[in-house]
Fold this protein.
Amino acid sequence: MKPAANSAPKTFAVKSFGCQMNVYDGDRMSELMAAQGLTATDADTADLVVLNTCHIRERATEKVYSDIGRIRKHAMAKHGKTPMIAIAGCVAQAEGEEIVRRAKVDVVVGPQAYHNLPELVAKAARGESALDTGMPVEMKFGHLPARRRVPPSAFLTVQEGCDKFCTYCVVPYTRGAEVSRPWAHIIDEAKALVGAGAREITLLGQNVNAWEDDGRGLHDLIVALDRIEGLARIRYTTSHPNDMREGLIRAHAEVEKLMPFLHLPVQAGSDRILKAMNRSHTRDSYLRLLDGVRAVRPDIALSGDFIVGFPGETDADFAETLSLVDSVAYAQAFSFKYSPRPGTPAADMADQIPAEVMDERLQRLQAAINRDQEAFNQATVGRTCDLLLERKGKLPGQLIGKSPWLQSVHLVTDAVIGDLVEVEIVSAGANSVAGVERVSIAA
Ligand code: 5AD
Ligand code: SF4
């Protein structure tokens, strides 16, 4: 269908869903539209609303359609007209033309093509069809404007895509094959981020630890970032167990700015399920890997992702997931009910698990994870650490920052957002801890 002509938008809003890479992409799209002279505003009033979408689970995908309806309804009630709507991100990539048919949106742009957003918006304004779900080999990053203002903790995408093909996962289809950004581009962007106010950089990739350029791996990159003056902290996420090289493990002992935190998804504790998931690691190899990391960095905080109710998962399989959680004692972890995704091998597997079984397993798993998270937080009480202040708290004078172990720390302080302060952790809850300030570290 050919959309009706819109006038060229003057204001825009970008709403991102899903993973941190989408947050990064959303920020870059905002910078791109601002560089075209558009003014950022909120989604209720904007002439152009970009929904940067997630396809990882069915619920995330359906949310896009309900959001489109809600945005139009609000705008119509408030201003008597509806905005131009652009669907970006992984739903755009996976559904393509289907979203135009189903929701009559104006622009569809995939995660590897969003540098073309201004051109697509101009096309839509002329009433032309505006869809780009290409995956060019030449990466979009070269076409994006320079970083200007960023938060104290900033994201930097270094790697995208996935070649692992876990049988439940849409990422290899929505984000494409594994591609690493070149070394020099990353270093330049890191310096620009620090120049624009970042004190912490989180390197992002769907398989961030698979990053490589000319024989250099992620640990070499981390060592290089460690030398950037003004940068205080380095993190990376998300890693795959099979790409966890010796050098990266060693970096956790040797690189001062690398924070003691590792997010390493395992998904399940049973070898039978791991095999059906095509994870290509075992329960034991995963646990040994964590032992290796803990050996060099005993205080490391561990995090993981879990799926419950993968097709064929028995009570005995699930018990192995619980026992793996018990033996790792994660500082935090994410857990999800299996969601069949169109086009993935697991969606066609026999023995799909009933919803109520999944609900019950998820509850039990989350209770175990919460228990461990609270115990981890409790164990940090009495520790002194530095805290990067990131946002305001609810109480007057209260700011919230992150500890090296990625805990949210509440603090009453005269310091400002972006400062690093030294705190003692004095009390702990399930989701956050409280600190009192020791001495200010020069900003
Ligand atoms: N169903 C449920 N959870 C999923 N994840 C990925 N695909 C699915 C799916 N089909 C989870 C995994 C992954 C995280 C980002 O989302 O745990 O690590
Ligand atoms: Fe969602 Fe995965 Fe796409 Fe991130 S990469 S937005 S988690 S589908």
Remarks:
- The chain has three domains: 11-132, 141-379, 384-441.
